[in-house]
Specification:
Structural class: alpha/beta
Helix content: 40-55%
Number of domains: 2
CATH class of the largest domain: Alpha Beta
CATH topology of the largest domain: Rossmann fold
Strand content: 15-25%
Largest sheet: 5 strands, parallel
CATH superfamily of the largest domain: Response regulator
Order of helices and strands: EHEHEHEHEHEEEEHEHHEE
CATH architecture of the largest domain: 3-Layer(aba) Sandwich
């Protein structure tokens, strides 16, 4: 983990370093936009603290250039202006948060910690989901929310994708209708089981060769449904 600071005021850079010393991570500081951009092109940082007004190239342009190649690194933008337009401009081109000078030490530290936590959570999620789940002729791309069959994309609604993700992520596991309602719809109310049934029927029509004799989504009579681990083997 490391922090980059691009700020032309040496007193503010010194203050930021003192405040963030609690993190016990390397902190790199740059006093103009070009030096900062050059460093960012050569080294990966955990977070960037970026001043809006800089000599050479301003913070908005730096942020724009960074986001062309790095969508993940948290960017906390600093501005001495209180105008809403400047804050909105920074957020619209990719800054994750902003602080208006002068700022409190506690707020700076809290904002940085929050951005680092969010970045870590997203990174962990991406690692877990940066994969394809392939079963039979079906392939599920979790990152891009795409389901293909024999290499051909199947058009799904958002709920149909959530449904197939639940099943393909847990092959062989039986889910009751109430389980599915809670996990996919966030509901636990009796009487809505028909919502599950109708969505499963639509999904079967899209993924099964013979929807009336499904090989993938199997009805477990009196229990619910499960996704067949071995669709090439006749289920019975």
């Amino acid at each position: 983990m490391s922090v980059a600071i691009i700020e032309d005021d040496p007193n503010i850079r010194k203050l930021i370093k003192i405040v963030l010393s609690e993190l016990n991570v390397p902190i790199y500081e740059y006093d103009n936009g070009w030096k900062g951009l050059d460093a960012l092109s050569q080294k990966k940082f955990s977070i960037l603290i970026l001043d809006l007004m800089l000599p050479g190239v301003n913070g908005l342009e730096i942020c724009r250039k960074i986001r062309q190649s790095d969508k993940q690194m948290p960017i906390l933008m600093l501005t001495s202006k209180s105008e809403e337009d400047d804050k909105i401009a920074g957020l619209e081109i990719g800054a994750d948060d902003y602080l208006t000078k002068p700022f409190s030490n506690r707020e700076l530290l809290a904002r940085v910690k929050a951005l680092l936590r969010r970045s870590e959570l997203k990174s962990n999620t991406d690692i877990k989901e940066n994969r394809l789940i392939s079963i039979g002729t079906l392939s599920l791309d979790l990152n891009n929310r795409i389901l293909t069959k024999n290499g051909i994309e199947i058009n799904l609604t958002a709920k149909e994708f959530d449904l197939i993700q639940l099943f393909m992520s847990n092959p062989g596991r039986t889910f009751t209708r109430m389980d599915v309602l809670e996990r996919v719809w966030g509901e636990q109310f009796e009487g809505l089981e028909h919502t599950v049934n109708s969505n499963i029927n639509r999904l079967r029509n899209k993924i099964e060769e013979e929807p009336s004799q499904p090989k993938y989504i199997i009805t477990m009579w009196g229990l619910g449904y499960k996704f067949n681990k071995y669709p090439d083997i006749e289920y019975g």
